[in-house]
Design a protein that fits this description.
alpha/beta; 12 helices; 35% helix; binds (2R)-2,3-dihydroxypropanoic acid
């Protein structure tokens, strides 16, 4: 690996990832793990050949246009890539890669965790215990819906959706899905395919968002589509916050139209609609779907594999443009 390649590393990635980057590239690190704004990203990119970034760093068209001509590649430490304007990258001759597959299991674990915690009211229960408000076992305390025999609708049956299906099957759930294209039967494993997202909503006692974010999917789960869900459904989101219209979601959680929600991602995060904080029937985590030691290392190593391939004159395995 040509050590003279200058790499801007925008976040404090796991230590083993940084050690490998330091070994193979001439790096500029972000030891304080500050979240650089657009101007800072542009300024700091000067003198570098490539950028190792995360989904928290936004590279819209105007930022890409201002990057120095020396930048030849953006390698993102994420499977999602809606923070990067791929057309602009292509137009400016900047290669882009992401880190698919390695985070499917961890993110599916988190989706299953949210299915369980939202339906079994784990947030409420934990708050009660910490407040010293538990007065003893009671026959109707903190009841929620069982998972067994319930339909789990999965929107987006890629690696994460399929890994969630495997987990949910073990809990006795019936798997339904919508995907841009129907899966082969060896991947479907008995899951019921629906011709549209709306048809999927209509049968989903539990509904999990596992699709990529795109302009067309902005606020997909709005008031109209929430109304298509069965009464008392549970919604979980480990994909992107922008897939949900928060005002509609909050209204449905307040009215009891939805039983509960489990949310790991938020529109405008790290800021999010404060009304969620007042809802007992929402279980929230801070975008930690992929947050296992092994997964975050694997993401970093994959991001570096892509850079290595590019600067060795090969096609990066996870090249997007
Ligand atoms: C991803 O990989 O897209 C995760 O959401 C972290 O950004």
């Amino acid at each position: 690996m040509p050590k003279d390649i200058k790499l801007l590393v925008t976040r404090r990635f796991p230590a083993d990832v940084l050690a490998r980057a330091r070994r193979d590239y001439t790096c500029t690190f972000n030891d304080a793990d500050d979240l650089w704004n657009s101007d800072e990203l542009i300024r700091r990119a000067k003198g570098h050949d490539a950028i190792l970034c995360s989904s928290s760093n936004k590279f819209p068209n105007d930022v890409i246009a201002e990057l120095p001509d020396t930048i030849r590649m953006l390698s993102t430490f994420s499977v999602g890539y809606e923070h990067l304007d791929l057309d602009a990258c292509k137009a400016h001759g900047i290669a882009v890669s992401n880190t698919p597959d390695v985070l499917s299991d961890a993110t599916a674990d988190m989706a299953m965790l949210l299915v369980l915690t939202a339906s079994r009211r784990a947030g409420e229960a934990e708050r009660m215990m910490r407040a010293g408000a538990w007065t003893g076992w009671a026959p109707t305390q903190l009841l929620g819906p069982s998972l067994q025999g319930k339909r789990l609708g999965i929107l987006g049956m890629g690696g994460i959706g399929r890994a969630l299906a495997a987990r949910a099957r073990a809990f006795g759930m019936e798997i339904h899905y919508y995907n841009r294209s129907r899966l082969a039967s060896e991947l479907e494993l008995g899951a019921v395919y629906h011709e549209s997202a709306e048809a999927l909503l209509a049968v989903s006692n539990f509904f999990s968002l596992n699709c990529p974010m795109s302009p067309e999917m902005h606020h997909f789960l709005n008031a109209e589509r929430i109304e298509m869900l069965p009464q008392g459904a549970v919604v979980v989101n480990t994909a992107r916050g922008g897939l949900i219209n928060d005002a509609a979601m909050i209204a449905a959680l307040q009215s009891g139209r939805l039983f509960a929600a489990g949310l790991d991602v938020f529109d405008g995060e790290p800021n999010f609609n404060p009304a969620y904080r007042d809802l007992d029937n929402v279980f929230m985590t801070p975008h930690t779907g992929s947050a296992t030691v092994e997964t975050r290392n694997a993401m970093g190593f994959k991001a570096l594999d892509n850079l290595d391939a590019f600067f060795n004159g090969e096609d990066p395995p996870d090249r997007l443009v």
